[in-house]
Amino acid sequence: MNYDNLPSWWPSDKSWIIQDCLEGMKSIPTGGVDLVLTDPPFNVGIEYGDDTDDNLSDENYAGWFLERLREMERVIKDGYPIIVFSGDKKIHPILDAVEETGLTFHHFLKWNKPTGQRGLSGWVLFYRTELALLLTNGKPHQNILNREILYSDTLTVENTRPNDKWAVEHPCKRPEGLYEILISGFDAPVVLDPFLGSGTTLLACRKTGRIGLGFEINPEYESIIRDRSMADVPELKGIFDWRNEPELEVVSK
C-alpha cells in the first residue's frame, strides 16, 4: 500500500470530496480511520465564502459541532486519536460537545507560532498560541504514539507567511510542517480531515506516507486542494498496512 491507494470503502476516486462532512462521514465504515486531524470553523465571524454560519450562539455551535463529532467518534478506531483545533474564545462549546460523547480527553496540544498576530489593540494580547484537543475513542493504544516525534504538548512551528509556497487564499491557513508533526506522531496509516479547507492535511499526508482523506463543503477550494494533494513529494516507504495490524496493547486512562 502507498499513499496513492484509497480504501475500498472510500466513495470517490479522489482523496477529497466536496460535501458537508456530516453527510460524507456516513459513507465511512465504523472504525475505518486511524487518525482524525481537523480544524473546524471557530465560530468567530470568519467569512469562508460558503453558507457556513460562523457566528452562532454558543449553544447552537456546540450542537452543530456535536453532530459532526459523533460521526468522528464512530469512524475512528477504538483507542486511536482525534485532534481538533479550536479558538480559545469558543473552546467551551467544543468541550461541551466532547462531554456529550464517549470520547476521552487527554491533552491540550499547544501550537506556538512565533510569527503570530501583529496587530494589537485594547486588551488583545500577542496571539502566539493556538489550542487543539487530543482525544481518543476509549483507552488509548500505547504503541501507536511515536515519542521521538511527539513528546511535548507544545509544538513551535512558524505560521504560514504570504510568500510561502503553499500560502493559499484561505482565511485559516495552517503550516504543513505542523500537520506533518502531528501526523507522524502516530502510527496511523489512514487520516481523515472532515474540514479540509485548503488541503493542508492531504499534502502533509503525502509527505509523511499516509493516506489522507477529507471533506470540504466549499467548492471554491477544490482547485487548491487538487493542486496541493497532487504535489510532487519524495517517494516514501514503510507505509503501514492496516489489514495485517497486530493486536495492540492498551493502557489505562
Q: Can you offer a commentary on this structure?
A:
The two termini are 32 Å apart. Helix 5 (200-208) links the parallel strand 7 and strand 8. Strands 1-8-7-2-3-5-4-6 form an eight-stranded mixed sheet, sandwiched between helices. It has one domain (18-117, 126-229): Rossmann fold (3-Layer(aba) Sandwich). With 253 residues, it is an alpha/beta fold. Helix 4 (176-184) packs across helix 5. Helices cover 23% and strands 17% of the residues.
* CATH homologous superfamily heading: Vaccinia Virus protein VP39
What would CATH call the class? Alpha Beta
Structural class of the helices, strands and pairings?
alpha/beta
- Shape category: globular
Which regions contain 5 or more consecutive residues with pLDDT less than 50?
234-253
CA distance, first residue to last residue: 32 Å
Say how many strands there are.
8
Radius of gyration: 17 Å
Question: What is the mean pLDDT?
Answer: 81
Total helices: the number is 6
Quaternary class: single chain
Q: Please give the CATH architecture.
A: 3-Layer(aba) Sandwich
Helix content: 10-25%
The proportion of residues in beta strands is: 15-25%
Main pleated-sheet profile: 8 strands, mixed
The succession of helices and strands, N to C, reads: EHEHEHEEEHEHEH
Placed side by side, the strands forming the largest sheet appear as 1-8-7-2-3-5-4-6
Fold-level CATH name: Rossmann fold
Number of structurally distinct domains: 1
